[in-house]
Design goal:
By secondary structure, the chain is an all-alpha fold. The protein has one domain. It contains eleven helices and no strands. Pfam families: PQ-loop.
């Protein structure tokens, strides 16, 4: 009886952590577009960040929706993870993904003066590396679909070979890659300008809280299943939490320690040249 109560309590804590992390991560999307609107400018924000975010959160929405509502994907997941056949994706994950995708599109749209009338630097253009990753990711998912259709058994319905779950994993990995890449240009922009002016630290603080709680929920869910393959079965959620927290610490260090006194006014677009340049020169 006591063990049943403990399990029920753990499930309750998991659900609570899930919605709190969704709230924290969801709120983290608002400071930057609000900051841009308040300043009527996108100066200080690397356009590579929202560019990656649009692709990443669209992919994340597709991945979560499939794990929640696709009977085919869920059956194939159960086949590959017999000890913990139920995916650790929760409805709060999908709610977060959809909300994030909408806010990312709004933030990206602020780089178009005809829509918002904001000041946008002439050098604020997506880097070649990010554009390459953007279109390369779409190509990779397309290739995965082709492999499932041409090489998978039973048209991709046999989970022992190339299957539709691999397409969903591909979407998940696109999100993970976008998360890793999207922060790098902004770290470089802050370093180049020796300032975090134009980059909202509030979104980073909320993002850190969300990452910690998301990771905690994943550990609790895996413990309840008595099988830690729940972690490897949901590599995207695990990776998102860890990658986000690493970069959050970097941004917090830049804002509060390294560039605490750095003040740059948005009066000279040439000062913001680093917003366009990629982390690694592709020339």
């Amino acid at each position: 009886m006591a063990s049943e109560q403990l399990v029920a309590f753990a499930k309750g804590v998991s659900t609570l952590l899930g919605w709190i992390y969704v709230l924290a991560w969801s709120l983290s999307f608002y400071p930057q577009p609000w900051f841009n609107w308040k300043r009527k400018s996108t100066h200080g924000l690397a356009i590579d960040f929202p560019t990656c975010n649009v692709l990443g959160f669209t992919s994340y929405t597709i991945s979560n929706a499939a794990f929640l509502y696709s009977s085919v994907v869920r059956q194939q997941y159960a086949y590959r993870h017999p000890l913990s056949p139920k995916p650790t994706v929760r409805f709060n994950d999908l709610a977060f993904a959809i909300h994030g995708a909408v806010l990312c599109v709004i933030t990206y749209s602020q780089f178009f003066p005809k829509i918002w009338g904001f000041k946008v630097g002439s050098v604020q253009k997506a880097s070649r590396i990010v554009l390459g990753i953007f279109w390369g990711s779409i190509l990779a998912v397309t290739i995965t679909v082709v492999l499932v259709r041409t090489r998978g058994r039973d048209n991709g319905y046999d989970p022992s070979d190339w299957a539709w779950i691999d397409v969903i994993y591909a979407f998940g990995y696109v999100k993970l890659i976008c998360t890793v890449i999207k922060y790098c240009p902004q770290v470089y922009v802050n370093y180049k300008r020796k300032s975090t002016v134009g980059w909202s630290i509030h979104q980073i603080l909320l993002d850190l809280i969300g990452g910690i709680l998301s990771l905690a929920q994943l550990f609790i869910d895996s413990a309840l299943q008595a099988d830690w393959s729940g972690l490897t079965g949901n590599p995207v959620k695990l990776g998102l939490s860890n990658v986000s927290m690493v970069f959050d610490i970097i941004f917090i260090t830049q804002h509060y320690i390294l560039y605490r006194r750095g003040k740059i006014e948005d009066r000279d677009e040439n000062q913001l040249e680093g917003e366009r340049r990629p982390l690694i020169d592709s020339s």
